[in-house]
Prior knowledge:
Blueprint: E1 6-10, H1 16-25, E2 33-38, H2 41-54, E3 60-64, H3 69-81, E4 90-95, H4 110-139, E5 152-158, H5 170-190, E6 195-202, E7 206-207, H6 212-215, E8 220-221, H7 222-233, E9 243-246
Parallel strand pairs: 1-2, 1-4, 2-3, 4-5, 5-6, 6-9, 7-8
Amino acid sequence: MAPSGLAILIGAGPTTGAGIARILSSPSHGNLAIALLARNPTNLTSLATSLRSTNPSAIIETFPTDTDPSNLSAAFSSIRAHPSFANLKLKIGIFNIKHSSKKPFLEETHTEFTKSLNDYVGGAFAFSQECLKLLFEHHGSTSLADGGAKKATLIFTGTLGALRTNAQFAAYGAGRSSVRMLAQSLAKEFSEKGVHVVHAIANGGIGDEEGEQQKKGARMSAEAVGRTYLWLSGQGVELWTHELDLRPALEKF
């Protein structure tokens, strides 16, 4: 079965990223070709090999990159030119980068603080721009008011740190909340153009398994996150979810 479109996932790690990619690339679920982006080429290759072993017909290609704008631009140029993605239109872009920083405030340096923001918030900015340019190339720019259709879904995986933070997490809270505001701004600007923007708050642990922790509601499964993201991408223009809270049943509020 030919893929129904293209998904681009940055932050394609062995846990959440793996589960999301497995669902999106599965013929019985998303049936999408997947471009996997992450910093470590060796880990990225291992992930792609693992995904192909469970779904031999999946189209999964890897593009090692960090969140530096020039490196992301080069990765997207490679995606455009890759023969595996010929004639496929972008359907989902997912920013799934990990971001964690804990340090007593008076021990934090200005350089460390601003680098954290540049890598994470700047990376979300650069990834969003690249996704938006690509989806408008693929789908055109006709607005919904002028008869255009939904073009694609852009999803940011956030955490509870986007809403509130704790002592010694100044850089972490600043980064997470900034990406939440970025998602809101993009939704307000691009919804009318047919771009569905989502900020998902993943509140609780995630494992790429369906074990006892998942069965008793103590931990999320990565594939459940993938199924939720696929559901979001399928929402029609009559109802779009912008922000949602993802948590296992036993996670405290």
